[in-house]
Design brief:
Blueprint lengths: L7 E2 L4 E2 L4 H8 L2 E2 L2 H10 L6 H4 L3 E5 L1 H9 L5 E6 L10 H14 L3 E5 L1 H7 L5 H16 L8 E5 H18 L2 H8 L7 H21 L5 E6 L3 H11 L8 E5 L28 H9 L9 H7 L7 H10 L3 H13 L4 H30 L12
Parallel strand pairs: 5-6, 5-8, 6-7, 8-9
Antiparallel strand pairs: 1-2, 3-4, 4-9
Helix pairs in contact: 2-4, 6-7, 7-16, 8-10, 10-11, 12-16, 14-16
Bound molecules: iron/sulfur cluster.
The site of iron/sulfur cluster has 14 residues, from helix 14, helix 15 and helix 16.
Length: about 375
Amino acid sequence: MPAPDDFVVTPYEVKGKVDYDRLRERFGTQELSPELLARLHHLAGGELHPLLRRGVYYSQRDLGPLLDGYANGRPFFLYSGRGPSGPLHTSHLLQFDLCQWFQRRLGVPMYIQITDDEKFWARSGLTREETAHWGLENLYDILALGFDPKRTHIFFDSRSIAALYPLAIRVARKISYSNVKAVFGFTPSTNIGLGFYTALQSVPAFWPSWAEGRAVPCLIPCGIDQDPHFRLTRDVAEGLGYPKPALVHSKMVPGLLGEGVMSTTGNRADDALFLNDPPKVVERKLRAAFTGGRATVEEQRRLGAVPEVCSIWALWRTRFAESDEKFEEVTRSCRSGELLCGDCKGQLIERVHAFYETHADAREKAKSWAESAIVTEPPRPL
Ligand code: SF4
């Protein structure tokens, strides 16, 4: 008898304790295997991003053929996006961190879609001005991660519509209402903007092929919860004469409150570490964060703590332990009971403050080129 489904993962909600191997089976994706990682390590000149080394990215679709093509002189491009409903939090950076690494190591172009239209349609509490405002703010944070101005292109939906629309028309004809209803759970009261948005979200995956008049492969790094979005894109690709985009999927980052994944749904602002949180707020949130520690110091010294359930360990793992030595030291001394949660949090708070300071400088620099990277014209008239 199969195990009962005791967790739910969709693009809109995550409930229960996620079994990631079972989720991969349920979604029908493939393992990001040691063999694939070894090939990537070789192609990237003997380096792997910590998110790959530490198993945060663990699943994929068609990564092998994409790497085969790259090895044979057929470069790909990266596509990722952001629905701007508010400030970014640290778990939003996972997909962009990996994209930036791919761009830096393999020299490939990056396309970023800022979906200010979709967030306006999806969140009744947000105005058009707010989604456009957060679109720009989020974009500065994303570009500040180190993207190359010469190889980075932005679709800011409400401003790039002339560039997107000729292709969106063709994509929209391939997607039926019953498809989007099944994937996104639309109801009779869902506004018609969201129905059409599915076509717009697929366009960047095909745009370089359209622009260059030849098949240009696409790679989309994303959280595994977002896989259903791109299944539709993959389903329509070949009918339009374009390659199916390949995907690499990450696990999700646990929230600071210790319940489910890092999220701001339900206004649980203390569940996430926002990039615009002032230092005092960062400290308060991290001091209050859920850990895998024991009830008393004596117990923790004797039994050790449990890093795998700890929201602080998840932050070390996904961003703040840059070297493997540091990550291994935190993990080992946590398990052995040498490291106590208060000290561990103190060390992390210092790292987060340092990152926020560096990031603020990089963000100011990104402002100088963000506008010029926004694509506003189609590559050629249709
Ligand atoms: S020592 Fe650090 S990593 Fe371990 S449970 Fe405590 S806070 Fe988490």
